[in-house]
Automatic annotation (TrEMBL):
It comes from the Eukaryota. Belongs to the peptidase M14 family. This is Peptidase M14 domain-containing protein. Residues 74-322 form the Peptidase M14 domain. Keywords: Hydrolase, Metalloprotease, Protease, Signal, Zinc. Residues 1-18 form the signal peptide. It comes from Apiospora phragmitis. It holds the Pfam family Peptidase_M14. Its cofactor is Zn(2+).
Amino acid sequence: MKLSQILGASGLAPLVSACLLPGEETGDGSHHLYRRQESGDTGFPIGSGDRFEGGAKFPRGLGTQEPGAQLDSLLSVKEIESAMKGLVNEYGIETFTMPYTTYENATMFGGKVGGRGKCSEAYHVYFNGAIHARERGSPDNLLYFISNLPRNSSSEAFSGASAFSEPETRNIKWVMDYFPKIRWYHDLHSFAGVVLYSWGSDENQARRPGMNFLNSTYDAVRGLIPDDPSAGIVYGEYTPSTDWSENVYAAMRTGNAMDAATGRHYEVQQAAYLYPTSGASDDYSYSRHFAYPGLNLVHEFTVEFGFGDENATCPFYPTAEQYHLNMLETGAGYMEFLMASTEIGLGDEVACSL
Ligand SMILES: [Zn+2]
């Protein structure tokens, strides 16, 4: 999530340079960013060693441990990699790397879990995470969750994890092209305490198919919330009513499961009501089959886990308690998302050799 969006969404105004990404330091003039008192509180620490010993050990999610189990620290980048190697060694999970390296020259990678067959058409659910660097705990949540999945291997899931940001959208596109039967896409970010469903570009409408992002007639009015009737056009982004109701249903199931895990409340809403976006990767994934009818419909969801750490030098850095609550919530949300998506439908049954 972008800083200005977080500010607008959370009301958590004071932020410091520890949090800022290049380009955010000057701001756009609409927000006054100022330096918080230097508390030095950076939240739950990042691991300094390698608890998975280069893959000799594997992560075990909180769901498979005693209630109240605590993890020692956030996963470092090195540990994210060794945790994945541990899962490969323990469960035979296949991994792959994506073609576009980040600005820090890091390679983004993913893992394949379940799937009826070995071909790339056998995977229907895409969990994306760790796209934004400061969103601490995102890869941890995903890795610890998928460490539970091989025990319930009836789940068909594809999961991806990556280290640090950019050029993430090209890799997301690549993944969707490489796994052309992905039907469900779940993108994990922090922090806002929300589960978002499509569209992000404008308010949904289901009655006027011609009023859509492909129609340049509406280029000047798309993204305006609320609309300006005096301009003569009230715009809504077209979504077929079936998609709309399925998206709401899956998002509600996910949000309710996250609520039930800890008692904190996640708001479920259409993405455009949090902040209208244009050309974001979430809308991109749902837009593909409209723009290119040969492509698969992809239901897209963005989950912003957590609620911010107001005492830390950067609110994206969770306390130890928040880190564990976040993990319990995202784990429950992931599982419910898989069940809801399976119930609604994973798309074409794919026949490929096992
Ligand atoms: Zn983000």
